[in-house]
Fold:
Amino acid sequence: MFGFRSDGKKIKTMDPFMKLTPHIMWDRNDAQVMSLYEINCKGMDDYIFAKRHENNIRLNYMHIVVAATVRLLALRPRLNRFVMNGRFFRRNNIQISIAVKKALLDTAEETTIKLTFDGKENIYEVKDIIDKAVAENATTQAYNNTDKTAKFLTRVPNFLIKLMVGFLKWMDKHGILPKALINVSPFHTSVFITNMKSIKMDYVYHHIYNFGTTSLFVSMGKEKYQPIVVDAETEKIGIAKIMKAGLVIDERITDGLYNSNSLKFFKRLMENPESLENRLEELVPDID
Structure:
């Protein structure tokens, strides 16, 4: 309460115009900005192939996306901010929520996993964390704490659900939502990632939620072959496998130039995954 939260620290000094924006754009869906990034898959494919044949390490696009996101937030920490009740906060850690379908069936349940990182992990450590969490949650018999909490909240009649959710939103707004609920909530996270390519769909621009603290949503689309310019000087055209990613960000957390440079850096990390092999020696602090 009064600017104190268990999941973040209040930022006291902000540019005056940035400080004003949450009072003009109250909700995240007022402030969401959408960007499309086309990622050339050649670097990822070559890297995945090399690691599989050299060391029998089975990487996939999701491992690379999450590892690149962790490295991005570690080195560009302003993206790991959130706005709540007109105040700016920097998050205490890096967390990524991922939607997981328990089976590729219409009737199969969907769950979410929330992964916590310190920011220094290399791609192999990220892979191990993801694989362990998916293995624990991808069976029809598995129910994590998020599932159990949702089930508990929906045991009552509909009008009581509305009252409870409204009360939880009020508590979150004023910084008194219990830490136990924040820990199980997939909406209180640095980034939410959805893998549309796993169900053979193209990218989407997924809205960011007004409940919780998510400031960035990444949607991975199904890769496709398309013409690209392979030589800018000769304007030579070639064919490349491209994965499109739809990114939606809360524009209030930092300025447009910082956002633009950060997302360009994310694209470079994706197309050059070998840069994620080494652990990060030191995090870049989000200086207040």
Observations:
- The mean pLDDT is 89.
